[in-house]
């Protein structure tokens, strides 16, 4: 597709269950980011992937959160043993990173809304 | 990244110019000013960015003061669809990537 695609768009789960959120970045974009946004709040950085480099995991709130990016394209954010405070919109973004054409523009998906009951 | 300060909310009449201020008094020489907006229930959308010079594109104009300690995003003819939260971000553009840190932003309400 032309933009960043995220699935599912909505997910309701019970406390303690594991969830997986998927992100398909724009084709050719080497950088991929995960953010989350709680109701009425700003965006909170979670994790960043750039090419084959080790990901920047500095924003992950706990060890229940993990993410992987297979083949340098699709990414999956996994939350284990979900808690009610994990309820938020999880946003994925990608950007083109190439020396000389690095404008810093991030393209965001529509997000995955997670509700933990 | 340098901290930015924005008013939490602003109103603007439809058809009038919306001028959104941002203070970034601790900005360093190699930090760019970026503006994004987030319309309700959507992901953030890039608007414009600049370093020193004023910039203009099809969406908006960015005016950066000579000392670079503040900037203003201008929507020349605001429409109801411009109602959104507008984020001002300053960021070093380096080889480590483009991670952006979003603050609280300004909630712009365009009224008929």
Which structural class matches the secondary elements of chain B?
Answer: mainly beta
Strand content of chain A: 35-45%
Dominant shape of chain A: globular
Radius of gyration of chain A from CA coordinates: 14 Å
The oligomerization state is: heterodimer
Q: Strand tally of chain A, please? A: 10
Query: Got a strand count of chain B?
Result: 9
Query: Number of helical runs of chain A?
Result: 0
Total number of helices of chain B: 0
Strand order of the biggest β-sheet of chain B:
1-9-8-3-4
Rg over CA atoms of chain B: 13 Å
Low-confidence stretches of chain A: none
Give descriptors for this structure.
heterodimer, A: 117 residues, mainly beta, 6-stranded mixed beta sheet, 4-stranded antiparallel beta sheet, 10 strands, B: 112 residues, 5-stranded mixed beta sheet
Describe this structure in words.
The complex is a heterodimer of chains A (about 120) and B (about 110). With about 120 residues, chain A is mostly beta strands. Chain A is built from no helices and ten strands. Chain A has strands spanning about 5, 10-15, 20-25, 30-35, 45-50, 65-70, 75-80, 90-95, 105-110, 110-115. In chain A, the strands form two sheets. In chain A, strands 2, 4, 5, 8, 9 and 10 form a six-stranded mixed beta sheet that branches. Chain A has a four-stranded antiparallel beta sheet with strand order 1-3-7-6, with no helix packed on it. Helices cover about 0% and strands about 45% of the residues of chain B. In chain B, strand 3 and strand 4 form a beta hairpin. The chains are: A mainly beta (about 120), B mainly beta (about 110). The interface of A and B includes residues 31, 108 and 109 of A.
């Amino acid at each position: 597709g032309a933009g960043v695609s995220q699935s599912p768009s909505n997910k309701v789960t019970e406390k303690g269950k594991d969830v997986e959120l998927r992100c398909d970045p724009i084709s050719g974009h080497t950088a991929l980011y995960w953010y989350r946004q709680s109701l009425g709040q700003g965006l909170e950085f979670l994790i960043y992937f750039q090419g084959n480099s080790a990901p920047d995991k500095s924003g992950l709130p706990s060890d229940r959160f993990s993410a992987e990016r297979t083949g340098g394209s699709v990414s999956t954010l996994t939350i284990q043993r979900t808690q009610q405070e994990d309820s938020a919109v999880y946003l994925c973004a990608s950007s083109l990173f190439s020396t000389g054409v690095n404008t810093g523009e991030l393209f965001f998906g529509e997000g995955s809304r997670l509700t933990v009951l | 990244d340098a901290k930015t300060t924005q008013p939490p909310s602003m109103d603007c009449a439809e058809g009038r110019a919306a001028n959104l201020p941002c203070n970034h008094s601790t900005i360093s020489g190699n930090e760019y000013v970026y503006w994004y907006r987030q319309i309700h229930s959507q992901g953030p959308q890039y608007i414009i960015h600049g370093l020193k010079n004023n910039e203009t594109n099809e969406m908006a104009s960015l005016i950066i003061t000579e000392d670079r300690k503040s900037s203003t995003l201008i929507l020349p003819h605001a429409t109801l669809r411009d109602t959104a939260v507008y984020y001002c971000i300053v960021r070093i553009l380096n080889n480590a990537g483009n991670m952006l840190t979003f603050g609280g932003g300004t909630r712009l309400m365009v009224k008929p």
